[in-house]
Amino acid sequence: MRSTLSQENLSNLIGVIYDCALDPARWETALMAVSEVIESDFISLTLNDMREGRYLINKSVGWEPDYIKIKRDHVAEINARLKEWLAEASSLDRPFVASRNLSADYLAASPYVRECLAPQNIVDIVHFFLMSTPAHLSEIGIARHARQGLIDERVLETGRLLLPHLRRAVTISNVLDVQTIERDRFETVLNALHCAVLLVDERGMILHSNRAGEELMRDRGPVTSQHGLLRANSLAATKELISAVGEAVKDEAAIGELGLAVALHRPSEPPVYAHVLPISGGSLRAELRTNATAAIFIGQSHDPKKEAQTLASSFGLTAAETRVLEEVLQGRGLPEAAAALGIAPTTAKTHLGNIFAKTGVSRQAELVRLATRASSPARTNSASPK
Fold first, then answer.
1. 183 has pLDDT over 80
2. In what order do the strands lie in the sheet with 196-200?
3. pTM for the complete prediction?
4. Count of C-beta atoms within a 10 Å radius of residue 209
5. Percent helix, strand, coil in the chain (nearest 5)?
6. What are 206-216's pLDDT values in tens digits?
7. What domains lie within the chain, and their CATH numbers?
8. What integer pLDDT is reported at residue 1 of this predicted model?
9. How far is the first Cα of the chain from the last one, in angstroms, to the nearest whole number?
10. To the nearest whole number, what is the mean pLDDT of the chain?
């Protein structure tokens, strides 16, 4: 079944969503627009900081305050089902649909269904996953009232259309530490950010960079300026960034995953990612700098311990193997890793061989790339990295 969402309405809705990347206070308006398009009375969006145990974004439409409180009492049950799904799902793009992925017996016995969903006449709910890393989990939940029926293919298709754009907005909000950027304080706020921000035109000409961006380019980091044009260390990364900027000019609704979590680092280096945000549309973004086509946000995402734990969970590594993996992900060779752990080089070699066998790689550089994909914002899940 094809979505009835017109191209014009889709573009307008995506413009509203992208404004939320720079101003999270606009999420209620965006979610209300999504709920109207997708024909759902209940919709929520969360960005959870797993390290601090807190919500960075927690917005909802349609949920009464009393039931929001009741829902919090059932977070353990909700998270348990979602974590099970993420561990089994082959892709982060696969949504979790209660009516399709839970048994009738489970739904009948579930305290969450009985105490929170049933009293509101909610008969089904779908979760679309925006981000899943050891540090952050973000998802959008869309629930349907009995009069609207179960989640159908039109809802799923519309959700898939919006998913990469929701994912981009949440990812950039996370890179920005969920700060609101106001027009009259734009350059001041950009300069205070730890992440690098570059504003470019349709050719990739750098029109403005914040202090972090200037330092990044001055120190010959993962991106440089060649005669004013943006260039990455690799040709592939440069092509993707410029292609994403080009799509931002032509039709930001068509940009999809292009330009989201673009890897800028070399295989043996700490992970660094770039995220392209179109800024020529939308009421807020168009006010920021009218001659810029896109903003490129560049931030590091490297925590060897968390990356090692992610792979250990995914591939069943032992505690000793995980410790060796953590040393490898910090860039140490096998002799250095053995010395740091106080074990014999032969023991470290045995552990590394077991890691290779379990993960299906044969070189340390491939292992680093695998960990990079496992920790890359928005593009991965906690299970089988591609």
1. no
2. 206-209, 196-200, 294-300, 272-278, 262-263
3. 0.62
4. 23
5. 50, 20, 30
6. 988 888 888 88
7. 7-175 (3.30.450.40), 183-300 (3.30.450.20), 304-375 (1.10.10.10)
8. 36
9. 29
10. 81
